[in-house]
């Protein structure tokens, strides 16, 4: 198999369970997928298990959660058996996660420059001067004007679009092999969203890395990703090339597509998704 097509991440029959007062809840149920140096979208309704899947890969679940799988391998690391100290070395350096809203992801009492520089100081043991220069270069790379000024700003002093660019800088500064982006543009307006996605796309192509892009937006995933994984009730119901999303065959995917408004096919009334119990069954 060519190096380019080898998977960075392999997940086989992974389930995530949470104990509750009324019994064990299975939030993710026997999902299997590979991710190479490509952009893979995961879509589905709220509660379908998208974000739980991403956090399980990072081992960021609560202590009470139970993650089981036949295999969870990232490059040369068995994520099922890796110690917490090994995971700390992986998070941020080899696998990075971009969260939905930078207001809740950034430390409010540290300048954004300090937070980005902290990543390379921690993982690469750079001195503060070298880390600052690398941070300024990264801020410039994500099209932030006047990086020197932005370096000294606090999170509440930046806009949503700039905050998301700062998050991208922080996650990419250590050159990870895989990025997990959980609804990274949902809080942005359309124009700013396209700018942020263009920056993210350029960086992924330049560095030849993998991306898991978690989203509710079918049109966005179709235009931005290479492949799409569709989840329903904790299960993967279909995997398809993004460019062929309109040719999906599973009734859940077809129902989601039919519920979307379209300028090409204007309709007086959109279709309502009619769920079937069999979709959630093995």
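^ Assign residues to that structure.
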């Amino acid at each position: 198999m060519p190096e380019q097509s080898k998977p960075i991440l392999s997940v086989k029959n992974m389930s995530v369970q949470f104990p509750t007062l009324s019994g064990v809840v299975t939030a993710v149920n026997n999902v299997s997928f590979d991710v190479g140096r490509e952009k893979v979208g995961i879509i589905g309704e709220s509660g379908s298990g998208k974000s739980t899947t991403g956090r399980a890969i990072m081992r960021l679940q609560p202590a009470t959660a139970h993650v089981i799988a036949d295999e969870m391998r990232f490059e040369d690391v068995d994520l099922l058996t890796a110690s917490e100290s090994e995971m700390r070395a992986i998070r941020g350096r080899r696998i990075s996660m971009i969260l939905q809203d930078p207001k809740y992801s950034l430390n409010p009492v540290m300048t954004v420059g300090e937070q980005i520089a902290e990543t390379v100081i921690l993982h690469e043991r750079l001195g503060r001067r070298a880390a600052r220069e690398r941070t300024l270069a990264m801020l410039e790379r994500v099209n932030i004007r006047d990086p020197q000024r932005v370096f000294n700003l606090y999170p509440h002093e930046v806009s949503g679009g700039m905050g998301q660019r700062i998050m991208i800088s922080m996650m990419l500064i250590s050159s990870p092999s895989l990025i997990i982006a959980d609804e990274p543009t949902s809080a942005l307006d359309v124009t700013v969203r396209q700018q942020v996605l263009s920056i993210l796309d350029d960086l992924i192509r330049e560095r030849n890395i993998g991306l898991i892009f978690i989203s509710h937006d079918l049109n966005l995933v179709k235009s931005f990703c290479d492949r799409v994984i569709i989840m329903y009730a904790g299960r993967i119901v279909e995997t398809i090339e993004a460019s062929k999303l309109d040719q999906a065959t599973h009734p859940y995917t077809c129902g989601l597509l039919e519920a979307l408004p379209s300028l090409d096919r204007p309709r007086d009334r959109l279709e309502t998704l009619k769920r079937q119990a069999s979709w959630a069954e093995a």
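The longest strand covers residues 23-35.
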